[in-house]
Amino acid sequence: MADIATHDTDHATDHGHHSSTGLSNNKLAMWLFLGSECLLFGGLISTYMLYRGRVQNGPHPSQIYDIPFTSVSSFVLLMSSLTMVLAVSSAQRKDDSKTNLWLLITGLLGATFVGGQVYEFTTFYREGLGFTTSLFSSSFYSLTGFHGVHVSIGVIMLISLRAIIKKNKITGDKSEVVELIGLYWHFVDVVWIIIFTLVYLIPS
Amino acid sequence: MTTVTETHEDTHEHGMSDAGYIKIAVILALITALEVSTYYVDFGPLFMPALLIMMVVKFVMVVSYFMHLKFDSKMFSFLFYTGLGLALFVYITALATFKFFIA
What we know:
The complex is a heterodimer. By secondary structure, chain A is an all-alpha fold. Chain A has 7 helices and no strands. Chain A has one domain: Four Helix Bundle (Hemerythrin (Met), subunit A), CATH 1.20.120. Chain A has helices at residues 2-14, 25-51, 61-64, 67-92, 96-126, 135-166, 174-201. By secondary structure, chain B is an all-alpha fold. Chain B folds into 2 domains: 2-71; 73-103. Chain B has helices at 2-14, 18-40, 47-66, 74-97. Classes of the chains: A mainly alpha, B mainly alpha. At the A-B interface, helix 1, helix 2, helix 4 and helix 7 of A face helix 1, helix 2, helix 3 and helix 4 of B.
């Protein structure tokens, strides 16, 4: 127990803005936020699971899903998690040029994923799957759309972070800022891991 | 005491080496390939459990290694897994109410 207390106190001296627990307030807030995000996506995923068979007159999921295309998109997002963790690792080593490079690659991979989703939505719409076509379509677009918005916000945060680092405008611990955005990014990836399996790979 | 502190600082600052992260990413990519193969190959009754297990393994690997929960304070794990557990409980109950699990 005493070892654990020392462990956290030592941690507290590394960075600023710590709570009475000795942990970073910013990281505590981010983890709390991510925990609450589980409830948001849980609601969207369970709604989709409930309505995925309710296609009315619209197309059935198996008629429109393009598994090879979505698999490539999933792989792209998964690899963006690797580049993000390499950015965090570089930031902890105080290597700004590599941090900027990995952040740029992560942002590009994220933008590629969002582009793929826009293409997928456009194709589905042309094939007769509008937002209000059926309960399946509404729940599908709500779930994947919310996720897409999260990825887009992540890309904006990555671009902004890169610009802030380049202008050297971070006053506190730079590596912690990169880590916080990394946590958000990885969370978006783990949500997609669930969506890819439950929505695309498991048929209704 | 010193040993614990040093070990902590080492894992906090680095979590894993870059090579370690790349190894984790390769494992994740292989599991993804296996997941996609279930679309083309008939796994029979193993189809659903295999997919769900692979999904959970990928989830835990990203959260533990890329998000550093394995190396960070247990308080962060508590906050995240509490939210996740609550979400699972609430929505599995909701789905059961709608008789989702009854074939």
